[in-house]
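Cross-posting from the modeling subforum.

Setting up a comparison between two proteins and wanted a second pair of eyes on the formatting. Protein 1 (sequence, then structure tokens):
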Amino acid sequence: MGISAVALIPIGLFLRFQPWGLISDLSGGILYASLIYVLVAFLVPTSARVTVGLWALGWCVAVELLQLTAFPSTAGHLFPPARLVLGTGFAATDLVAYLVGALSAFLVDLFWQRRITNSRY
């Protein structure tokens, strides 16, 4: 997990609070999915990377669909930082951002795995 998660969090928070509209929203979603990928890979390091990517994407989609209920709003009122994890309202465009983020994290991970494997020989 190391430096990748440490870098993704402040970058994602920075982008989240910029007044760039859709660009901020999409880039935040991409980084959120990437962070979830890193966290899943850290928690279950022996999982196949495709499995890690699917779990990350599944988590993000579940959180987005949860935003169709009152739960995230209620949780955000009780504990404002929960808004950063659970979101505030459903947006279909976020689903695309999550797909791009999980796929990007998977491809970067795959690239680094191959690079490490090839450097050993």
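Protein 2 (same layout):
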Amino acid sequence: MSTMTGNELHLKPSLAKSLLTVALVTAAILLIPLVAMQFTTEVVWTGSDFVIAGILLAFTGLVLTFPLRKLRTTKSRLIAAGVIGLGFVYCWAELAVGIFTNLGS
């Protein structure tokens, strides 16, 4: 039976920093529609819109964090970021207006 020390329970500092960065960037992006709603009636988001957008942004950031930490070459990092970015844009557009299905309408 193995025992865990206190050091094994903590995240690596660089991983903790990456997770904090994802959380802060997600919050900053969600502030854009929140502020826009104060100045115009053209932006109308509900609480569920913010929750879904937050989940999508945070998930994308987390998924992007791991290949960028593991892949070594710039080319492979760009390819991974491009594929993940396209997946994000597809999900966002599908939820917003339902380009290929009726999910957004």
